[in-house]
Each structure stands twice: as C-alpha cells, then as structure tokens.
Amino acid sequence: MSLLDKLGIDLPIVQAPMAGVSSPAMAAAVSNAGALGSIGVGASDAEGARRMIAAVRERSKRSLHVNVFCHRPASADETLEAAWLERLRPHFQRYGESPPRRLREIYRSFVEDDGMLATLLDERPRVVSFHFGLPSPERIRALREAGIILLASATSITEGRLAAQAGVDAVIAQGFEAGGHRGVFDPDATDDCLATTALTRVLVRQLSIPVISAGGIMDGAGIASVLQLGAQAAQLGTAFVACPESDADAGYRAALASDAAYHTVMTRAISGRPARCLRNRFTELGTGIPPAQIPAYPIAYDAGKTLNAAAKAGRESGYGAHWAGQGAPLSRNLPAAELVGSLASELHQRGWALPTAL
C-alpha cells in the first residue's frame, strides 16, 4: 500500500501541524481538498485536544493528522529562571509591566501525559505524529494497535533510524530551512543543520520506510523537487500561515507580509528550544545569549508568551513567536482549500498526475 493510501489522501501534501496556528477549520479545509489536514495539540491538554478533534470532524470526514510533542520533561532551575526574568525585566517595563515572579512548565510532554494518550486511543485520528523525539515503545504499540498511522520528525540520519526502529510508518525529514521548532531529539547535541534536500535524499537512501520532506517548501515546484528526490509527500507549514483559517494574529500576518519574511533567525530565546522565527524584537534580544543561560523548554516559553502579551497590550507585535521557514517570501494569502488547489495545479504542471476525482 502506498503512503498516500495509508494516509487516506489524494495529494502528496501535508499541512504542517503548527500548534497555535493550525485551526480545526484549516485542517478540515485542507483535508476536504484532498491533502492531509493537521492540528498540533502539543501545547494543549487532553480535553483541549478532544475538542479540537471534534471541531475538525464537524467539518470533515476525511483523514486527520494530530501532532504531539515528545520533548524531555523540563527540569526547573529557580536561579536560572530568576536570572532570565531579570534579563527580560526592561522589556516588560517598556510596556508598563513587571515580569512574573516565577515561571512554570506550561504544558506536558506526551511522553508522560497519560490523559493525552487516552484521548488519542479513544478518538483514533487517522494519523498521529511525534515531534522532538519519540514516546516509549508501550505508547507506540498502543497507538499502532488502535490502527493509527504514525509519523515522526527527524533532523538527522540518526534520528531517522531511531524513528524507523521504533516502528513509525514514515519519517518527516525536517530540513534546517523549516520554520518553527527544530525537531531535534536533544537540543543540546551538535546539530549538523542538514538542508531539506540533503536530509531527504540521505533518509530516502538509508531508510526502508517512506519519507515526507519538510522545510522551505512553499509551492508546487518545491513539492515536485522533493518528490524527485524520493520523498513520497511534502509537508508545508509557513505556506499556510497567511490563510484566513489560520489562527495567526494580525501582528504575525503583518510580519509575514513584510520585509521580515526575508530574514528568518534560529533562536532559543522565545521558548527555550531552537526555532526558526521571523526576525523581530525577541530574536534580537536573544542574539548572543548562550543556551545555558536560557531556561528549559517549555518553561522559557512561559516568559516568552507573557512578554508577548504585555507588548501586544501596548500595541507592539515584535515579541511574538512568528515562526516561519526560509521560504517565507513565497507566502500567499489564500483560503486553505484554494491554496491546496493551487499547489496541486502547480505540481501537475511539473508532470505529476492529478487524481481523476480532483
């Protein structure tokens, strides 16, 4: 059975599950258009995830992709966190606020969230994917036994091999160009920063399971290029941020449509983990700060979100988590279904045969 058949989709296109951006309305529109619609529930609790899944299913009967975070649970360090808040204090004061007295771990990792596992086993979305690592063999086995197709992000051949050995059905090759959080299993290990094309080709050659390519892909030409490299589908995230169904706020949309789209930065300052963001006030303040001085993910994200809220109240959007890949200048402001249609048409122009039903 082909990967597309397993996923239950017509087109080799996966809308990336961007937590905080990928709304149920977007996922449903993408799935109804023949691609794989996705939601990210890594920053939600089990009941929130259940509500999001229900909201998609109210709009679509087609395949749904749900993504969870499998990061190492954070280790609190009160001294480090207090020093980080003091570093941020002038930025809070600029908007008439003080930093919070302490930081907290704002959401749990799937590796220890039994409630999220129970929700997924109960709801049984067609596809579940893992980011930042892998859950235990027991959790993987339970999801597989429920008939769920499993995907995992990999930024290196080592991570790809670990994912394949764990029993996932396909690997998402996340190139260094990709927007949002790097899927590295260990954020403190050396990152070879492999580009999408190199990583895709290496994983295709060395793994026996399908590869989905991600990172910097914004149009049909990009999709066609990774299919030529042997990927069986492409995952696009930044391409969908400007869609009206996206949950991106006005500041995020304005930044994506501005010159900032030409200047993305990999930073830990916002969340505590490496992530590619449009250059803004937050990425600037993080310049030159050693990783050891930034609290663990997602504890640092508590400060990032709080500072962004204070700045937005003062009509400043430059502290937002404006995640975007290096293909950001190619962004299009189209409804999600129309964007999928354009991608399919562009792909067809490059020789890919469209399903007759489309």
Detailed description of the structure:
It is built from 14 helices and 11 strands. With 358 residues, it is of the alpha/beta class. Strand 5, helix 7 (157-166) and strand 6 form a beta-alpha-beta unit. It starts with a helix and ends in a 9-residue tail after the last helix.
Task: Give the structure's gist in a few sentences.
This protein is α/β, with parallel strands linked by helices and 358 residues long. The chain folds into two domains: 1-73 and 108-246 and 331-358, Aldolase class I (TIM Barrel, Alpha-Beta Barrel), CATH 3.20.20.70; 75-106 and 258-330, no CATH class.
Give the topology.
Layout (H helix, E strand, L loop, with lengths): L2 H5 L5 E3 L8 H9 L4 E4 L5 H14 L4 E6 L8 H16 L20 H10 L3 E5 L5 H9 L3 E6 L2 H10 L3 E5 L5 E2 L14 H11 L4 E4 L5 H9 L4 E4 L1 H4 L8 H7 L7 E4 L7 E4 L2 H5 L13 H15 L22 H14 L9
Helix pairs in contact: 2-3, 3-5, 4-13, 9-14
List keywords for this structure.
single chain, 358 residues, alpha/beta, TIM Barrel, 2 domains, 3-stranded antiparallel beta sheet, 39% helix
